[in-house]
C-alpha cells in the first residue's frame, strides 16, 4: 500500500491554549511566518488569549468548558479532518516548541514512513529546558515503558511536540486520552499497541516563556502514578489496528 508523502500544505498546526495571553501572539505569528496554517484551540481561557488570536487575525475555536490539553487536541484533530488536512503538528502556546523545526518533523515522517513523530528534547544539543532530578527520572521511566510498546527507542515520551498523520489522525479524533499525560505518554502506548509506526527526531525545546505550568509537582506525581496504573492494567484507550485503518482509508479514497 502506498505511503502518504506530506507537504507543508497537507499539515495543520494545532495550538492548544489555556490562559496564554502573554505568549500566544508571538507563537502564532512565528507559525504563520513559516508558511503553515494553524488553529488555536482556546481551552476556555479566562484571560485575553482568544482576543489576542482574533486581533492577530488568526483562527481560534473556544471550548465551552476547560477540558485540558487532550480535549483541546481532539477538537483540533476533528477540525483538521473536516478541513481536509492529512496531518497535524501539535505546538504549545507557551513558546516552548521550536516552530522552526516543523519542516524537520515532516521530513522525518516522510523519510521513515512513520505515522507519528515525536520531537525529543533529549536528542537535541540545543535544548535549554531545565528539569529537576525527580522529573527527569520519571520521564526516563515513562520513556522506557513507551519504547517497549512502540518497539522503537523513544527518549521523550512526554513531549507534546509531534506530528500525526492519517489514518492515525482519524483514530485519535474518535478516541483520544484527554487527561494529563494521556495526550503524550498514553497516546504513544495506544498507537504502539495498534501497530502504528512511531519514531523520534531531535527538537530543541526550551522552558516556557511566560505563565505557569498547568500542573504542580505534586499533581504530576499523582498523574504519573495514575497513567502507569492505567497502562499496567490495560485500561487505556483502544483504537483500531493500523493495517485495518489503512485498508479502510484506502478503500474510501478509491470509492470517490
Description:
By secondary structure, the protein is an alpha/beta fold. It has one domain: Spore Coat Polysaccharide Biosynthesis Protein SpsA, Chain A (Alpha-Beta Complex). It is 42% helix and 13% strand. The protein has 9 helices and 7 strands, in the order βαβαβαβαβαβααβαα. A 7-stranded mixed β-sheet has the order 3-2-1-4-6-5-7, with helices on both faces. Helix 2 (49-55) links the parallel strand 2 and strand 3. The chain is globular, with a radius of gyration of 17 Å.
> How many domains?
1
Radius of gyration: 17 Å
Number of strand segments: 7
CATH class: Alpha Beta
CATH superfamily: Spore Coat Polysaccharide Biosynthesis Protein SpsA, Chain A
Mean pLDDT: 90
Secondary-structure map:
Blueprint: E1 11-17, H1 24-33, E2 37-42, H2 49-55, E3 60-62, H3 69-82, E4 87-90, H4 102-112, E5 116-120, H5 133-150, E6 162-165, H6 168-174, H7 182-193, E7 198-202, H8 217-232, H9 242-254
Parallel strand pairs: 1-2, 1-4, 2-3, 5-7
Antiparallel strand pairs: 4-6, 5-6
Amino acid at each position: 500500500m502506498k505511503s502518504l508523502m506530506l507537504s507543508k500544505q497537507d499539515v495543520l498546526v494545532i495550538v492548544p491554549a489555556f490562559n496564554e495571553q502573554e505568549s500566544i501572539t508571538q507563537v502564532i505569528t512565528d507559525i504563520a511566518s513559516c508558511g503553515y496554517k494553524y488553529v488555536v484551540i482556546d481551552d476556555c481561557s479566562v484571560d485575553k488569549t482568544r482576543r489576542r488570536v482574533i486581533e492577530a487575525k488568526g483562527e481560534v475555536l473556544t471550548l465551552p468548558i476547560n477540558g485540558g490539553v487532550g480535549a483541546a487536541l481532539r477538537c483540533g484533530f476533528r477540525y483538521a479532518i473536516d478541513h481536509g488536512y492529512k496531518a497535524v503538528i501539535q505546538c504549545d502556546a507557551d513558546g516552548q516548541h521550536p516552530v522552526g523545526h516543523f519542516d524537520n518533523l515532516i521530513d522525518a515522517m516522510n523519510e521513515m514512513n512513520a505515522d507519528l513523530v515525536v520531537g525529543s528534547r533529549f536528542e537535541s544539543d540545543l535544548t535549554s529546558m531545565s528539569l529537576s532530578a525527580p522529573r527527569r527520572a520519571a520521564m526516563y521511566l515513562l520513556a522506557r515503558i513507551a519504547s517497549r510498546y512502540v518497539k522503537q527507542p523513544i527518549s521523550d515520551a512526554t513531549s507534546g511536540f509531534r506530528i500525526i498523520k492519517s489514518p492515525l489522525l482519524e483514530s485519535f479524533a474518535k478516541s483520544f486520552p484527554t487527561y494529563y499525560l494521556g495526550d503524550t505518554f498514553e497516546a504513544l502506548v495506544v498507537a504502539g499497541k495498534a501497530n502504528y509506526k512511531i519514531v523520534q527526531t531531535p527538537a530543541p525545546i526550551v522552558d516556557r516563556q511566560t505563565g505557569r505550568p498547568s500542573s504542580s509537582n505534586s499533581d504530576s506525581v499523582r498523574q504519573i502514578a495514575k497513567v502507569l496504573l492505567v497502562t499496567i492494567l490495560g485500561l487505556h484507550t483502544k483504537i483500531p489496528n493500523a493495517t485495518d485503518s489503512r485498508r479502510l482509508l484506502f478503500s474510501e479514497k478509491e470509492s470517490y
